[in-house]
C-alpha cells in the first residue's frame, strides 16, 4: 500500500470514528452535494453582482444612490449566506470568516456614510505611487499631480505626500478631533459667530500639537532624502480634502517655499494649521460643508530650478478668441507670474493640433526670481540682451500645448496649468487646476437651443448605432488604423486609435490618443478598464470600423451615443468640457468606486499559500473565492471519506493523454458499468466529454519538440501527484468532480494551472462556464503575453474576460447547451494549445500569430465536426 | 454588458442623433428627485438633439407642465412629495398627447405594470442604459410622427 493510500485510509477511519464518537449519524451525501451546488450558484450570483457594479462605472448606465445602497445590501446578504452555507457543508462554525465579513461590511458602510476609509495606512506616500484612487490619502491636489505623473506619464517634480491618515493620527493623539468638530458645528449653528477667535484658537492648537515620534522621524527622513542631503530646498504645499474640486478652497491654504530639510516640521505644522484659517472656515460654513470632517494631506517637493516659468489656460478668457489657449511666460521662477507682478510674454495658440501660433506679445522682462545657492530665492536683473527675447521657442510652445491638451482630455475640464522649463530644457508640470471660467458655449446648457445638436445637423455620419460604449465621452482627431503587431511607439499624438481587436497593449498610447474604436472587443475587458482609468472615449464591438474609417481621416467620436461623425464637430467637443458635472466627479461615481475597493479586488490568489485564510480576506471577492475553494476541497474530501459513497470513491480516469486525472462521480457522470479504472468511453458527464474531445483532437495538443516537452511535462505531473497527493486536502492534484451536468476540474499541466467549473444541460439559465488560467514559470512579460493571448481567444468566443496579472478568468453563461458544449470543446483545445506556449511567446507579434493559428485551427476543426 | 445585449441590436439606437431631417426639436421634460439622474440625462439628450428641461422637485415640474406642453415626459416613479403616478395623471389630464416614460426602481416593477393602464408609454428599470431610454424616445417619435 502506497503512503497516500494509507493516509487516505487513516483519514477515512478517523472521520467515521469521529462521527460515531459524536454520536450522530452523518448527513447524507446527497444533501451535502445539494448544499455544495447551492454554494456554487451563490458564488456565481456574487461574482455577477460584483461585475454588474463594476460595469456601472463605464458610463453607459444611469444609476443613483439607491442603486449603490441596494447593491451593497444585496451583496452583503449573499456573502453572509454563502458563509452560512459553507458552515453547513463543513458542519462547523467558521468564526474567522464571519469576522472578516463583518470587518469588510463595516468598511463598506463607512464609505456609504461618507466616512472615508483610508486604504493605505502609510504616513508618507511617494508621489510615484499616487493616483486619484488614493485621493483620500494624498488629498486632491497631490492625487491630481500623481495622475499627471503616473497615469499620463508627464514630467512633474518628484516628492512625497504626508497623508491625511498622518493628520488624523496626530490630531487623534492630541485629542483635537472632537474640539475641531465641535467648533465647526458651533460655527455652523450660529452662522459664524466668533469665527475669528475660533479660527485663531484652532490654528494655535495645531501649531502646538505634539507630532507622534514615528511620524516626525518619517517626515524628517523623507525630507532629508528628497533634499539630497541639503543640496535642494523644498516646497511644502497643502493638499486638503475637497481642495481644487467642486468646492474649491483654492488659494486659501498655506504653501511654504524654500524650506530647508531641517525646517520641515514647522512648515508641515503651518500648512496643517491653515486648514482652520478664517477664509477656509467661512468657505466651509457657506458651502454646506459643516458635516464633513476636514483633513489635510501635505505635499513635499523639491524647489524646481527654472529657466522659464509660466501658466497656460487651455481656453483663453477672451471674447474674440475662444478657440485659443493662452500661455504666459517669464524668465526664472514662477511665483511673480502667479502673483501677477511680473512682465510676461503672452502667446495665443490654436487648440487644435498642430497648435499653430496665433499671436505672440513679447514683453520687456527686466527682472526675474531665482533660487539662491544657500536656499531661498532672490530677485535679480535680467541681462540686457535677454530682456526683449521671447522666452519660449516654437518647439517648446508646441510641446507645452500638446501636454496641456492631454491634461484637459484627461480631466475633462478647461485647465490652468502651472509649468516650468528647467535649465536642462525639460518641461515640468507643477500643477493643473480646473479653470473657473468656461468656454462661451456654456450658454447652450441653459437655453433650450442645443448648439451641439445644431452642430451635428447635416454632418455626415460614418458609424451609428453600432458598438458598445466602454468609456463615454466625445473627442475628435485623425484616424490611425493600428495594424496587427504594429510598433506602438510610432502612434501619432492626438489621433484616434482604430483597431480590429481591443488589446491591453494600447494602454501604452492611451495618454496621447484621443479615442479608441475597435471592431471586436468587450466593454468589460482589460483594455476597457484601462481606458476608463485614463478616461479615453472608447467604443468597442463596432464590427467594421477598420473598414469604414480611413487612415488620416478627421473624425469626431461620440462614444456616449455610439456615433462617429466625419470631420471635427467642434461644438460637440466643447460641450464635453462645459458640462456642469463631470460624471467621474459625481458623488455617485466616487462612492461606487470607493465601495468597490472593498468589494471587487481579488487578493487571495494562491490556495496553497499560508495567507489563503479567512484572516487575509480583504474584500467580498476574497471571501467568495475562499468559500468556493473550501467548498471544492470539502466536497473532494467528502467524496473520499463519506460513508455513503465509499463505493463511489475516486477513480482513475484512463485517458489517451497523460493527464493523471482522478474523478469523483457524484451523480451519473460515469457509465454505471465503469470499473475502478474508468476509460474515456465511460464518461457521461457532458461538459467533461466535450472538453476531452477538444483536448484529444489532433493538432491541438502542442507537443513540439516532443521529447523535451513530454519529459518535463511528465515529471511535473509526477511531481504534482507525488508531493501533494499525500496532503489530506488534496489541493493541486488533477481532479474532476463530475455529475451528468456538472464539471469541476482542477488541472495542472506542465506549469499551467487551469480551473474549469461548468454546469451544462439543465435549463438555459443555469448553463454556465467559468474558466481560470494561471501560473507559468517564465518571466513576467511572457506570462502576461500568454495571459493576453488566452484573454483574446476567450473574448473571441464571447467569454466575459478579466485579466489580473497573469491570471485570466473567463465566464460565459445562459447560452443554449449546444453552444456551451462547443465552448467546452474550444476550452479543451485551448488547454492543449497553450500548455507550454510561454517559451514561444518571445514577442508581442508572436501573440497575434498564435492567436491567428489557434483561431484558424479551431475554425477548421469545428467545420469537420459539424 | 452581457453577451445577449451585444447580440441584440434592438437595444441600440438605429440612427444618428439629431436626425438630419427633424424640423422641430422634440421636447423632453425629465423629473427625478435624484439629482444625478437629471445631471446625466439632460446633457445626454441635449447632445442627441433634443430640447430638454430637467427637474428635481415634482412641484416645480408640475408648474412647468402647466405652462408648457412637452412631447415626452420622463419621470421617476417614487419620489418624495408627489409620486410618479400622480404626476403621470396630471400630465395626461393636461396634455393627453404627451407620452410618458416611467423610470422605476427594481422593486416597484409591479406598480409600473399597473401604470400602463394609465397610459404610460414605456417603463425603464433603474439602473438603466442610456441607449435604452433613447430607444424609448425614438419609438415615441416614430409613433407620433415627430421625426422622420
Summarize the structure.
Chain A is an alpha+beta fold and 866 residues long. Chain A has 25 helices and 31 strands. Chain A is globular, with a radius of gyration of 31 Å.
Describe what this molecule looks like in 3D.
The complex is a heterodimer of chains A (866) and B (148). Chain A has 866 residues and is α+β, with helices and mostly antiparallel strands. Chain A has five domains: 29-117 and 598-622; 124-302, ATP-grasp fold, A domain (Dna Ligase, domain 1, 2-Layer Sandwich); 308-414, ATP-grasp fold, B domain (D-amino Acid Aminotransferase, Chain A, domain 1, 2-Layer Sandwich); 460-568, Glucose Oxidase, domain 1 (3-Layer(bba) Sandwich); 650-865, no CATH class. Chain A has a nine-stranded mixed sheet, with helices on both faces. In chain A, strands 15-22-21-17-18-19-20-16 form an eight-stranded mixed sheet. Chain B has 148 residues and is α/β, with parallel strands linked by helices. Chain B has a single domain (27-141), classed as Rossmann fold, CATH 3.40.50. Chain B is 41% helix and 18% strand. In chain B, helix 3 runs parallel beside helix 4 (84-94). Chain B is globular, with a radius of gyration of 15 Å. The chains are: A alpha+beta (866), B alpha/beta (148). At the A-B interface, strand 1, helix 3 and helix 15 of A face helix 1, helix 2, strand 2, strand 6 and helix 6 of B. Strand 1 (61-62) of chain A pairs antiparallel with strand 6 (128-129) of chain B, so a sheet runs across the interface.
Amino acid at each position: 500500500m502506497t503512503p497516500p493510500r494509507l493516509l487516505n485510509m487513516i483519514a477515512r477511519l478517523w472521520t467515521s470514528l469521529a462521527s460515531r464518537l459524536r454520536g450522530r449519524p452523518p448527513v447524507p451525501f446527497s444533501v451535502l452535494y445539494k448544499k455544495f451546488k447551492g454554494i456554487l450558484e451563490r458564488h456565481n450570483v456574487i461574482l455577477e453582482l460584483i461585475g454588474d457594479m463594476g460595469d456601472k462605472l463605464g458610463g453607459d448606465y444611469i444609476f443613483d444612490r439607491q442603486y449603490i445602497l441596494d447593491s451593497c445590501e444585496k451583496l452583503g446578504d449573499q456573502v453572509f449566506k454563502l458563509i452560512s452555507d459553507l458552515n453547513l457543508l463543513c458542519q462547523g462554525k467558521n468564526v474567522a470568516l464571519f469576522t472578516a465579513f463583518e470587518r469588510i461590511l463595516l468598511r463598506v458602510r463607512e464609505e456609504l456614510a461618507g466616512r472615508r476609509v483610508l486604504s493605505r495606512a502609510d504616513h508618507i506616500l511617494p508621489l510615484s505611487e499616487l493616483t486619484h484612487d488614493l485621493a483620500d490619502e494624498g488629498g486632491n491636489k497631490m492625487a491630481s499631480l500623481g495622475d499627471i505623473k503616473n497615469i499620463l506619464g508627464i514630467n512633474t517634480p518628484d516628492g512625497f505626500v504626508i497623508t491625511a491618515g498622518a493628520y488624523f493620527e496626530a490630531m487623534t493623539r492630541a485629542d483635537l478631533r472632537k474640539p475641531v468638530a465641535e467648533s465647526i458645528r458651533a460655527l455652523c449653528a450660529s452662522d459664524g459667530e466668533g469665527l475669528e477667535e475660533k479660527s485663531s484658537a484652532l490654528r494655535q492648537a495645531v501649531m502646538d500639537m505634539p507630532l507622534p515620534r514615528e511620524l516626525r522621524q518619517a517626515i524628517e527622513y523623507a525630507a532629508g532624502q528628497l533634499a539630497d542631503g541639503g543640496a535642494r530646498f523644498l516646497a511644502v504645499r497643502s493638499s486638503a480634502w475637497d481642495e481644487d474640486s467642486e468646492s474649491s478652497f483654492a488659494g486659501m491654504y498655506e504653501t511654504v517655499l524654500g524650506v530647508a530639510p531641517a525646517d520641515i516640521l514647522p512648515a508641515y505644522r503651518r500648512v496643517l494649521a491653515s486648514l482652520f484659517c478664517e477664509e477656509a472656515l467661512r468657505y466651509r460654513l457657506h458651502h454646506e460643508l459643516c458635516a464633513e470632517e476636514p483633513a489635510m494631506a501635505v505635499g513635499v517637493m523639491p524647489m524646481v530650478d527654472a529657466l522659464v516659468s509660466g501658466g497656460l489656460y487651455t481656453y483663453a478668457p477672451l471674447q474674440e478668441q475662444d478657440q485659443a489657449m493662452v500661455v504666459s511666460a517669464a524668465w526664472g521662477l514662477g511665483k511673480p507670474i502667479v502673483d501677477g507682478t511680473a512682465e510676461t510674454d503672452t502667446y495665443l495658440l490654436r487648440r487644435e493640433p498642430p497648435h499653430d501660433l496665433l499671436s505672440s506679445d513679447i514683453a520687456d522682462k527686466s527682472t526675474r526670481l531665482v533660487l539662491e545657492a544657500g536656499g531661498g530665492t532672490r530677485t535679480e536683473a535680467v541681462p540686457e540682451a535677454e530682456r526683449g527675447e521671447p522666452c519660449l521657442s516654437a518647439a517648446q510652445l508646441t510641446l507645452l500645448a500638446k501636454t496641456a491638451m492631454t491634461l484637459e482630455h484627461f480631466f475633462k475640464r478647461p485647465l490652468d496649468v502651472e509649468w516650468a522649463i528647467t535649465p536642462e530644457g525639460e518641461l515640468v508640470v507643477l500643477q493643473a487646476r480646473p479653470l473657473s471660467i468656461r468656454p462661451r458655449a456654456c450658454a447652450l446648457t441653459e437655453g433650450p437651443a442645443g448648439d451641439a445638436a445644431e452642430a451635428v445637423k447635416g454632418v455626415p455620419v460614418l458609424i451609428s448605432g453600432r458598438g458598445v460604449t466602454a468609456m463615454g465621452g466625445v473627442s475628435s482627431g485623425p484616424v490611425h488604423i493600428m495594424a496587427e503587431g504594429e510598433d506602438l511607439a510610432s502612434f501619432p499624438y492626438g489621433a484616434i486609435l482604430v483597431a480590429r481587436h481591443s488589446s491591453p497593449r494600447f494602454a501604452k498610447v492611451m495618454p496621447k490618443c484621443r479615442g479608441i474604436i475597435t471592431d471586436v472587443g468587450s466593454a468589460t475587458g482589460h483594455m476597457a478598464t484601462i481606458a476608463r482609468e485614463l478616461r479615453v472615449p472608447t467604443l468597442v464591438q463596432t464590427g467594421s470600423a477598420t473598414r469604414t474609417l480611413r487612415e488620416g481621416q478627421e473624425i469626431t467620436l461620440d462614444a456616449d451615443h455610439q456615433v462617429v461623425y466625419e470631420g471635427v464637430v467642434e461644438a460637440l467637443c466643447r460641450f464635453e468640457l462645459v458640462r456642469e458635472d463631470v460624471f467621474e466627479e459625481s458623488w455617485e461615481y466616487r462612492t461606487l468606486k470607493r465601495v468597490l475597493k472593498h468589494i471587487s479586488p481579488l487578493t487571495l490568489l494562491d490556495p496553497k499559500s499560508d495567507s489563503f485564510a479567512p484572516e487575509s480576506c480583504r474584500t467580498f471577492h476574497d471571501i467568495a473565492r475562499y468559500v468556493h475553494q473550501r467548498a471544492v476541497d470539502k466536497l473532494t474530501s467528502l467524496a473520499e471519506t463519506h460513508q455513503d459513497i465509499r463505493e463511489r470513491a475516486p477513480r482513475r480516469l484512463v485517458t489517451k493523454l497523460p493527464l493523471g486525472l482522478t474523478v469523483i462521480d457524484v451523480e451519473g457522470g460515469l457509465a454505471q458499468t465503469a470499473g475502478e479504472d474508468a476509460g474515456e468511453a465511460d464518461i457521461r458527464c457532458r461538459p467533461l466529454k466535450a472538453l476531452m474531445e477538444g483536448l484529444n483532437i489532433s493538432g491541438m495538443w502542442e507537443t513540439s519538440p516532443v521529447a523535451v516537452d513530454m519529459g518535463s511535462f511528465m515529471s511535473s505531473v509526477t511531481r504534482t501527484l507525488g508531493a501533494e497527493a499525500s496532503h489530506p486536502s488534496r489541493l493541486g492534484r488533477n481532479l474532476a468532480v463530475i455529475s451528468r451536468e456538472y464539471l469541476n476540474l482542477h488541472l495542472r499541466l506542465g506549469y499551467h494551472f487551469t480551473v474549469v467549473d461548468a454546469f451544462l444541460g439543465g435549463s438555459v439559465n443555469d448553463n454556465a462556464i467559468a474558466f481560470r488560467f494561471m501560473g507559468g514559470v517564465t518571466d513576467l512579460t511572457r506570462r502576461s503575453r500568454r495571459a493576453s493571448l488566452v484573454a483574446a481567444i476567450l473574448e473571441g468566443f464571447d467569454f466575459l474576460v478579466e485579466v489580473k496579472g497573469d491570471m485570466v478568468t473567463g465566464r460565459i453563461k445562459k447560452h443554449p447547451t449546444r453552444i456551451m458544449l462547443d465552448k467546452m470543446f474550444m476550452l479543451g483545445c485551448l488547454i492543449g494549445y497553450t500548455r507550454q506556449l510561454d517559451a514561444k511567446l518571445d514577442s508581442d507579434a508572436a501573440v497575434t500569430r498564435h492567436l491567428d493559428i489557434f483561431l484558424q485551427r479551431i475554425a477548421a476543426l469545428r467545420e469537420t465536426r459539424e | 454588458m452581457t453577451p445577449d445585449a451585444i447580440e441584440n441590436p434592438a437595444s441600440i439606437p438605429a440612427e444618428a442623433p439629431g436626425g438630419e431631417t427633424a424640423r422641430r426639436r422634440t421636447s423632453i421634460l425629465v423629473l427625478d428627485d435624484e439629482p444625478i439622474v437629471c445631471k446625466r440625462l439632460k446633457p445626454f439628450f441635449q447632445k442627441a438633439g433634443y430640447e430638454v428641461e430637467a427637474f428635481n422637485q415634482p412641484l416645480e415640474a408640475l408648474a412647468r407642465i402647466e405652462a408648457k406642453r412637452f412631447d415626452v415626459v420622463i419621470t421617476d416613479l417614487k419620489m418624495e412629495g408627489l409620486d410618479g403616478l400622480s404626476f403621470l395623471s396630471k400630465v395626461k389630464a393636461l396634455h393627453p398627447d404627451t407620452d410618458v416614460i416611467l423610470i422605476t426602481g427594481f422593486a416597484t416593477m409591479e406598480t409600473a405594470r399597473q401604470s400602463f393602464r394609465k397610459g404610460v408609454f414605456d417603463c425603464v428599470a433603474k439602473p438603466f442604459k442610456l441607449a435604452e431610454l433613447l430607444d424609448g424616445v425614438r419609438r415615441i417619435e416614430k409613433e407620433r410622427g415627430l421625426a422622420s
